[in-house]
Amino acid sequence: MYGVERCYAWIIENAVNISRIVFAVYILLLAFMDIRRRELCLGLLLTGIPLAVISRIVLGNIPAALVIAGGAAGALFMIISRVTEEAFGYGDSILIMIMGIFLGIWDLLLMLVTAFFLASVFSVIMLAGGHYTKKSSFPFVPFLAAAYIGGMLIGGYG
Q1: How many folded domains does the chain comprise?
Q2: Per-residue b/e over 47-84, b at no fewer than 16 CB within 10 Å?
Q3: Domain carrying residue 39
Q4: How many angstroms separate the Cα of 129 from the Cα of each of 116, 124, 137, 147?
Q5: pTM greater than 0.85
Q6: I need a surface site. Which of 41, 79, 132, 148 has the fewest CB within 10 A?
Q7: CA torsion angle for 83, 88, 93, 99 (degrees, to 10)?
């Protein structure tokens, strides 16, 4: 019995890091899927909703208003997907909404700035190398994953 209690105490003590690692694995799976197929499996994508909500309930380390604002920012990207006729995909927008719930608005904004910066550097390199044209598209989830994991590794997320 002592081992079970000790294990439970360790899980509780490390719940924030465990949830961050689980979310990193989730987003890496989506990134690989986006690179290989240029689309996201809706079932896997939607599993992030309960993952993010449960993390927020269990951890409770982000005020509810910031969590709601993070989800609303993702909803704004859904509108952008609609207006641009999916130049920015719905899957990307849903993932941003999930990440907004998981991170809260301020960490989401930091992560998005980083992801868009990485994507812009990638675009410039690909354009300069002649690999892409101005009309080319590329998967965005890998940049979201890189920004999330990079921020997580340097301790940038609350």
Answers
A1: 1
A2: ebeebbeebbeeeeebeeebbebbbebbeebbeebeee
A3: 2-153
A4: 20, 8, 15, 24
A5: yes
A6: 79
A7: -140
Is the Cβ–Cβ distance between 87 and 137 less than 8 Å?
Answer: yes
Tens digit of each residue's pLDDT, the chain (158 residues): 567 888 878 877 887 888 889 999 999 999 999 999 988 888 998 999 998 888 888 777 788 888 899 999 989 999 998 998 888 889 999 999 999 999 989 999 999 999 999 999 999 998 888 877 777 778 899 999 999 999 988 887 75
- Whose structure tokens read 């992560």? 111
144 is a domain residue: yes
The tokens 């849903």 sit on which residue?
94
Q: Which residue, chain included where needed, has tokens 């960490």?
A: 107
Domain membership flag for residue 158: no
